[in-house]
Each structure stands twice: as structure tokens, then as C-alpha cells.
Amino acid sequence: MSAELSRFLGFAFANADVLIEVRAGGTISFATGAVQHLLGVREATLVGQPIEMAIAPGDRGLVQRLLRTLGPNCRLTPRTVTLAVQNRAAVLSGYRLGSSQSVQLTLTKVNSLATSSPTADRDQQTGLVQSDAFQNQLAERFGLDGEVGAPKLSLVKIADFGEIRSRLSQESMARLLAEIGALLRVHAADDSLAARLGEDRFGLVHSDAVDVGAIRSEIQATGRAIDPGAPPLTVENSTIDLASPGLSREDAGRVLLFTVRRFAEEEHTSEISSMTDALQVLVDQTVNRVAKLRSTITGQRLSLQYQPIVSIADRSLHHYEALARFPDAAAGPTIAFAESVGLVQDVDLMVAQKAIDELLAPSAKEELKIAVNMSAASLGSDIFVAAYRKLINRFAFVAPRLLIEVTESSTITDLERAARILNDFRNSGQVICLDDFGAGAASFPYLQALPVDFVKIDGSYIKRLGQSRRDDAILRGMVGLSRDIGVKTIAEMVETVEQANQIMALGIDFGQGYLFGRPENTPSYTPAGPIGAGKRKGTRETWG
Question: In angstroms, what CA-CA distances link 449 with 410, 420, 445?
């Protein structure tokens, strides 16, 4: 070996573990380095084999496309790929010298301690990241940290996907999906920013230099090559520009994330024929809703109403629930939207502050207690938790009179962390209630993991009392379980004396509903005597 060649090899191995030369057509002509260790075969075994034999199936299409599109005197942008041996991760780099038909590649092992499995969260057919992982990337990198800027988001949909799948053989369909995945990964700003969002739809974040029209044409050309006699693929695409006037970068990122979620969830584009038009309408509507909600929050135009929660046995007042009210918008859908765009933390914090203001009002009685809702999404936010702790510490003397109702409308992903936070709140004197108990699949794991003092049984069980033996048995089980572990129970949506008598017989401790009082602008409740004394004047027989 010449001294010059030794220097070149030393230079290469300073940054890589394996060197491979690949001829036109993808055949390996040379290999050296830690081949046995990284690829599980000897150097001589690799020579003459296609490069694909070293790469896991999910990344073979990507590597093939990278080699086909690498021009003269061009460097291959480093990509993390999965190797065929034990799904091991490696960084692939390369260079094509001049007009040579060969490409020099390097493989560098990725530290398994520092990187999760490269196949995790990836669609096996395309090699693209799956929808949830893609959305997490967007939330972390394009919006919620204020980094919305040059990158663009393009959404791609293949129409009549079901018909195409039924027409093509399994092998041809696999080729089509692999080619689409490879194409999008090549053009994405980062390999984690190209995703399969649904069976027939895809998304990628890319630079301004990427021609999405050319990507659409390449997908159509791939379809023609795989299925020559069939009608051309109908490929729709839309690129979203988040430079929306009147929105901060943070809120623009929220619009982006919400749009991707809706695009991923919708099976059809609705009655609007053009996907671009449909997405633009969605973006415009979301921009307006975010701006309106942000204005409500910053303008302090959110108000509260208070509904009593009373003892079933004697109808004495226990506490009130504070219910958020929005100008010109229904509370339920607005809260759901706030959760989906990451603004519910602001809402929850404002509700807590307004409830504390009510507790501090000169007219407030010392025994007044108010429960405020805390979304699982808020509980999962370090920023919200820090802000809420600061608020409680500032008004520590009223903390025991401010209850927390943890709502289950979004999932608590880290129960251990949530339990620590709630225990911290309890140590400050607050009482914890688990809302909508029995409505979601996570109710019992939450009860097992979280330190709660009350559970509020979902009103659907109360509305169906006596109509289903199964539901009644489940309700009895929830009440018995709560009693056995020392947790008090609250029934919501109690409308009639008959319902109140039934839940009292079951052993439920407290009730909330129109039988005891409607939401009012000020905490105001007058006991009407024991349940058996008759129905309270003015109550309704049905839930309004």
C-alpha cells in the first residue's frame, strides 16, 4: 500500500468505520474497514453483491434513490440508515468524483446508547416516520419553540388509493410505497421530517429550494413505470405558508400542528374538490380561531360561572365548580380546540386566577371552596406547572379552598411525573379530583397511579341509571372501588329526585346537576332540604 493511499484511508477512517465503493447499478466493487463487525460479513462476501444486502429493507429504497440522484463531484448529505444486521443504525455518507460511475460510501456506527432504534416510529412500507412521531417533531422544532421560518410544509395525497391497491400486486404496491417514501425522505429537510400521515397521504418539511411540483411528477412517473397500462396516478399537493399576518411565530406553529393533525385524521377532503383549497380554508379558519382565542385570553375576556356540588344525604353545599365561559363561543368546543392547538394551559391558568380572585372577593364567605379544571395537557407542561405553582405560592392561604379537577380529555403520558406534581399540590393543601371517571379507557390506571381525593363519575352513567344492568353494575363497581380505597364520589348530571335517590342508595357521596342548581355568575346556593323532601322548584327533567 502506498503512503498516499495510507493517508487517504487514515483520513477516511478517522470519521467512518467502513468504506464501500459502489459501481453503476448498485453493485459493490470494494469494501474495507470494520466490515465484519458492522455488517456481519467478510469483505470478500460483500464484493459483487448489491448494496441493498447491507441495508435493512425499510431503507433500501432511500439508498437506491440517493445513489441514482447523486451528481458529479457531489457529496451525499449524511443520513442515518438501518443496517441489515440486528437493525443497527449507521450514518451513511458518500461522494461521486467527477463523472465516475462509481460512488464512494462510508458507514459510521451510531452509538446505541445515544440513539433509539432507527426503525421505531417508522412505517414499514415506506420507511417514513409515522404520524404521531412527525407531529411530535413539528411541535418540538417548528412552532412551540418559536422556530417557524424558512422551512415549508407540503402535504401530498394520492387519490383513489384503494383502487390502486386492489389493482396492483402485493410486490408492485410495495415498490410504489417504497419509492414514494424514498423520494420524500431525499427531499425532506431532515429524515425525521418526512412522514406517512395516513394510508393515502404524506407530509414533509423542506426548504424553499425544493420543487414540490417535481416531486408530484416523480410520483406519477413511478406509477407509470410500475403499472404502465393503468391511468396515471392523481397526486394532489399543497404547501402551507405560515407567514400569516397577526400571528406570532408560536401561534403560527400551533396552526401548522393543528392542520397536520386534521389532514392526518380526515379520511376525505370534504366537499371541496381541490385539496389545496381545502387546506387553505382549514388554515384560514384555524388562524382566525387561534387569533380569536388568543385575543380572549390576553384581553381577559374569559369569564366564570359557578355550579354547586352538594352532599347527597342532606343537600348541604360542599363546593362549586368553576366553568369557563367564552364570548360568542360554546365552552366545550372551545376548550377542545384550545387543547388541540396547545392553548389550554393559558385557559387553565386564567381560570385558576379568576377563581382565586373570587375567593379573595370581600363578599366571599370563609367556607367558600371552588374547583377548577386542569387539563391533562396542562399537567404535562413544565411551563404551566411552574406558573401554577407560582400562583399558588403567592396565594398560599387560599390554596386549601381551591380544588383541582384533572380532566381526561387528553392523555397523561407520564403518570409517575403527574403523580409527583399532584402530590406537591396536595402538600400545599389542595384537594384533587379525577373528572369524568369511567368515560375513558385510562380512568382506572389514573385512579391507581394518581393521588386523588375525589372521583367525579361521568354523567352518562347517571343518565342511563336503571336502563342497563351492565351499566348499573359497572357504576356499583366504581362506587365500591372508590369507597374501598378511601376516595369520595361525585355524580354529575343529576336532574331528578329519582336519580338523586338512586345514587344515594348506591352510596355516592356528592351530586352536581340541575336538580341542585344551574351555573350562575356568582357562587350562590340555597339548600332545599333533604332529597326526599321533593323536587326543587324550577328544575328540569332532562339535561339541557
Answer: 16, 10, 6
Considering 66-70, 121-125, 347-351, 361-365, the range whose residues carry the highest mean pLDDT is 347-351
Give the 3-state secondary structure of 57-108. HHHHHHHHHHHHHCCCCEEEEEEEEEECCCCCEEEEEEEECCCCCCEEEEEE
Look at residues 482, 489, 493 and name the one whose alpha carbon lies nearest to residue 519.
493
* CA torsion through residues 44, 48, 54, 56, sign: negative
Residue 9 identity (one-letter amino acid): L
Q: Are 395 and 345 in contact (CB under 8 A)?
A: no
Q: Helices then strands (H, E): number in the chain?
A: 19, 18
C-alpha cell at 153: 410544509
Q: What is the pLDDT of residues 324-366, one digit of tens each?
A: 999 988 999 999 889 888 889 999 999 999 999 999 999 888 8
pTM for the full model?
A: 0.69
For residues 277 and 36, give the distance between their C-alpha atoms in angstroms, rounded to a whole number.
54
DSSP string, 397-449: GGGGGEEEEEE-SS--S-HHHHHHHHHHHHHTT--EEEEEETTSTTHHHHHHH
Question: Please, what sign has the CA dihedral across residues 186, 191, 197, 203?
Answer: negative
For residue 532, the tally of other CB atoms under 10 A from its CB is 9
